[in-house]
Write a structure and sequence with these properties.
- The protein folds into six domains: 114 residues, Tetrapyrrole methylase, N-terminal domain (Cobalt-precorrin-4 Transmethylase, domain 1, 3-Layer(aba) Sandwich), CATH 3.40.1010.10; 101 residues, Tetrapyrrole methylase, C-terminal domain (Methyltransferase, Cobalt-precorrin-4 Transmethylase, Domain 2, 2-Layer Sandwich), CATH 3.30.950; 75 residues, Orthogonal Bundle (Helix Hairpins); 28 residues, no CATH class; 65 residues, Helix Hairpins; 51 residues, no CATH class.
- The chain contains 19 helices and ten strands.
- It has 488 residues and is of the alpha/beta class.
- The strands form three sheets. Strands 6-7-10-8-9 form a five-stranded mixed β-sheet, with helices on both faces. Strands 4-1-5 form a three-stranded parallel β-sheet, with helices on both faces. A two-stranded parallel ribbon has the order 2-3.
- Helix 10 runs antiparallel to helix 11 and helix 16 packs antiparallel against helix 17.
Length: 488
Amino acid sequence: MNPGITIIGLGPGDSQLWSQLAAEQLRQADEVYVYTPHPSLPDIPGQLRTITPPKDQAQSPDARFRYISAKIVRLAQRKASLIVAVPGHPRLDDPVTPHLCAEADTAGLPVTIVAGLSYFEALMTSLNLTETHNLQLAEAYKIASLYHPPLEPDRAAIVKNIADRPTATQVKQTLLNAYPEKLHVTLIHNPGTLTESMWAGPLYEFDSHVQLSPPAFLYLPADTAHSGFSTFQQTIAHLRAPDGCPWDQKQTHQTLRPHLLEETYEVLETIDANDPEALAEELGDLLLQIVLHTQIATDTHEFKMGTLIDHINRKMLRRHPHVFGNVSVNHVDDVKANWETIKKAEKAAKGQVDDNASALDGVPKALPALAEALAISKKAVRVGFEWPDVEGVLDKINEEAREVAEATEPSHLESEVGDLLFCIVNLARWQNIDPESALRATNARFTRRFKQMESLAAAEGQRLQDMTLPEMDKLWDKAKALLAAQKQ
């Protein structure tokens, strides 16, 4: 027997699938440690010793795996050699093996792996798969612990070792964050054995078909209706390559600047229109700009996609300590206060603290005027420059309206109109209304009503420019009524 710990793979089924080396070592062993059920365990001649974590150590898969690993290492430190038998191939199928190898290495114990036929080969046969170069593999307990699966939907995937229905339900919820609920999937129990069974149906149903005896494996075919992010990056990289598109090849950050702004406004338009289908399309166009900018940066050795994703991901982790740390919050205002405190700490760490800095610094210069006014107003409020109540804002609006009426010089009038608009932005802030969105909605509403007026006038054989103002007022009221009735 090998010194230290020997981990033997039992393959996916009965003892006929043992490798010759595995069979030889198992038949020579006086005792074999196991921690997972397997159909070939009755064929092991030596005494089986089962390691079962106590309930307080089995609350999570990782805790269970750590307990088993630590237990085996402690036993191995008292024996010249110790044999552990696991399903399938130790490195491909057993989630405990990585923990056990790490624990043994720390303890200075050698580990010998005796390979076994893996479940992967059995699954390939059961599913009649012929290509594996794009196949993704994921552990069920890992998927179950996430909110979004680390899988590309346009590539086939296998979720391994689904132990029970609660785990299956958690896996399903995570997968549904990336996959359509009606994706046709296949669930396989005990692949490569005489008791193998298979179920096929929509993703949203699969967890109700998980049997109580593991192992179970879920096969997700490539979803041809949805592209993965890597696939999209490949498309853009190709467009920028020497054999790509002449237009894309010539673009720079500066030449794309107007397109980025245009696509942003088109996204806002679909949000205002409450059109999810159009929103998905326009967000895709906006994403194109981000990926194209990033590919330009990659080509010019500025940064890569991983850089910007890592930057924003780390920022979200830092700025949400109430989610990813041990900070407690009671209200959304606490979240905002923490956010500002963390931002200041980040700037200090970068040496960006300026004793002469203004409370109004940091407002993007390219913002539309209403959005800029709102950002300035919010920053001023943080240092206490604020009306005590909304009545103060309304009084200021009335005051500015009077000054507009009294202004005579064009430059003075422009200034007073600007003051009035700024006060109205503050009123919107007090009422938790985004002034930019409010005005865009009003613009859209006015446009719909005006076009309805034009249609009503045309139906009467008239043109608006030939009508009197009272006549147009009547048409306006009629247009409002018609549009209101259409919404009911």
